[in-house]
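Hey L., structure's done. Input below.
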Amino acid sequence: MQEVEVKIRLKNPGALVRHLRRAGFRLERRDHQRDIVLDQEHLELRAARRLLRLRRHTGGWLLTFKNRPEKDDRYKSREEIETGISNGRNMELIFERLGFHIAFSYEKKRRTFRRGNEHGHVAVDETPVGSFLELEGSRRWIDRTAQQLGFTHKDYITKSYALLYREFCEARGVKPTHMLFKRRRR
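Output:
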């Protein structure tokens, strides 16, 4: 399946959610996601701009492969193969035995919205490095929806959360590790 998406940095996610509801979007799912990016010893997948991801979310586990993005300045477009799995911890062990390791992990709190039977969806992501709108669908749907929500092509971001996190850390002089929410001490 071909995935086409863009991210947009949000200053006020609450106002955007209200705008989505006024525009006819309905909350489909509220999720806490923890993504584990797996790679080989010398980060061969990252170097090839490919991704192997194990995602734990509120509803279970997903295993995803994403191929290298197409050359496209405006949208992030690439092959995505995804399947549900019943035991993510065992899948992680299988990949470990095959020589893969956790190269990066990150969390987000995601609210997914849909409008009617449109073939696209909107996600509002809260991450440790800020809030983002993610539009996924056809290029035409993305452009039309972004415009309805008050955004233009200039607002589009095609970077991964890993790259956004590295840039966030560099700007603050912090060594990047994993993009996780801080846990409260009890």
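The chain has a mean pLDDT of 95. The chain is about 25% helix and 40% strand.

-- N.
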